[in-house]
Amino acid sequence: MKTILHITSLLVFFIISSCSSTQKITALKPEPDDAKPLVYETTTSFIKIPILIKLKDIENQTNKTLNGLIYEDNNIEDDDIEMKVWKLAPIAIENLNGKIKTVLPLKAFIKYRIGTDKLGVSLYNTREFNLNGVVTLISDVSLSNWKLNTATELKSLDWNETPTTTVFGKTVPITYLINPTVRLFRSKIERNIDEAIAKSMDFKPNVLEALEKICTPFQMNEAYETWLRVVPIELYTTDAKFKKETITMDMGLKCTMETLIGHKPATKFDKNKIVLKPVMQMPERITTNIAAVSSYQDASKIITKNFSGQEFGAGTKKVTVQNVALWHKNGKMVIALDLLGSLNGTIYLTGYPQYNEATKEVYFDQLDYALDTKSKLTKTANWLAQGYVLRKIQENCRYSIRPNLDEGKQSMMKYLKNYSPMPGVFVNGTIDDIQFQKIQLTNKAIIAFIKVNGDVNVTVDGIQ
């Protein structure tokens, strides 16, 4: 009987000993915070908007605007002439030493009378002429109040035939009589040309529509609801200049670019507040920011892989990490490690996310056990609470965001390769290497904010 009791006691001792070699921990879980969606405003940026206006577009629009009868004088009593002038054929426009040369083919109906009115008796000889001719006009170009303005001067009027009449049986040229009447309608033609060009070249609606498209928030990452919003501040423009068969001017949008996480934000574009300011030149480069978004789920998977096949401990007491989970609390990152080995259960670490520019990795500074976890480890597994074990674990609590940076860059590049938000408007540009700025946490993801230098051209090419 004593022998049986002795053997039973030894079995109980060994069972207790074997059970006590694998300890369990049930540390208090730090519950995640509701980190509100964030708004991050970047420094001031410039978007260069070169305006290229082809003379062919001006020609087309002017021909649409100026048609049919362009001058009419039905009173023959004041100067013995009645005249009607029509545009005969399409207007031709070209560059002449930095000015607009307009060639206007026209036809004229002219009624001219010769005679006298004496003692109440009218003795008149009235003749009618149908003439063809060409008017050449030269225009200076300027930019004012969103419009391409011209100051036009009629330089010449060449008739295709010399008008003549018969007086007392003789053929008499009357060009010397008709050409002075040009003074009567030259100002009318000049004004018509200026008004037609001004009307067709009011590019304010085109520019504002393009800006509205640019300033409408667009989604950079659908999964994590990342939006980029351009907020205009001022719009600048340089003087209009001729470059071969185009008129060029540079416009530049001074703005901020905000990265927002969450639902689609409202636009901050108000066309009534956009003022055009003249400047000598535009900045060549732009600075903007993009967001490299890493979900806690994706980051957890990567860090879990880092722990694969590794043991942590002291002496014969070792654990392996089976799974990693991340979330946010009080501005810190919580890292939950599911352990198996000499200690079973879940332990919690906290630290501040940081970024290593050289390796493009996110790591966690001031990493330590959560308060309740540390207390439990001190009592049950002090070997795991020791600093060198924590340092070994910390080495694996890191992950590269290089894929996220590349994804963010590619998201931007989609809008910089001849992207056309509307007919006649094209967006092109380049992006240099990206530079890290800061990390912020949301309830969904870790957001790494990246500064990007580059250039963006929004070209308005083709007037509809």
Say what the CATH topology of the domain at 55-200 is. Bactericidal permeability-increasing protein, domain 1
Count of individual helical segments: 10
Low-confidence stretches: 1-20
**How much helicity do the residues have?**
10-25%
What is the gyration radius calculated from CA atoms? 41 Å
Main pleated sheet? 11 strands, mixed
The computed structural class is alpha+beta
- The CATH architecture of the domain at 55-200: Super Roll
Key descriptive features of the protein:
464 residues, alpha+beta, Bactericidal permeability-increasing protein, domain 1, eleven-stranded mixed β-sheet, seven-stranded mixed β-sheet, 26 strands, 24% helix, rod-shaped, disordered N terminus
Structural notes for this entry:
The protein is of the alpha+beta class and 464 residues long. The protein has a domain at 55-200: Super Roll (Bactericidal permeability-increasing protein, domain 1). The protein contains ten helices and 26 strands. The chain has helices at 2-21, 55-65, 175-178, 182-200, 204-215, 296-306, 371-380, 382-385, 387-396, 402-413; strands at residues 23-26, 39-41, 45-54, 69-73, 81-87, 92-96, 99-118, 121-144, 147-159, 164-167, 170-173, 218-221, 226-237, 241-243, 246-261, 276-278, 286-295, 311-314, 317-329, 332-341, 343-356, 361-369, 398-400, 417-422, 425-441, 445-461. The strands form four sheets. Strands 2, 3, 12, 13, 14, 15, 16, 17, 24, 25 and 26 form an eleven-stranded mixed β-sheet that branches. Strands 1, 18, 19, 20, 21, 22 and 23 form a seven-stranded mixed β-sheet that branches. Helix 2 packs across helix 4. The longest helix is centred in the first third of the chain and has 20 residues, at 2-21. The chain is rod-shaped, with a radius of gyration of 41 Å. It starts with a helix and ends with a strand. 28% of the residues are buried. Mean pLDDT is 77; it is low at 1-20.
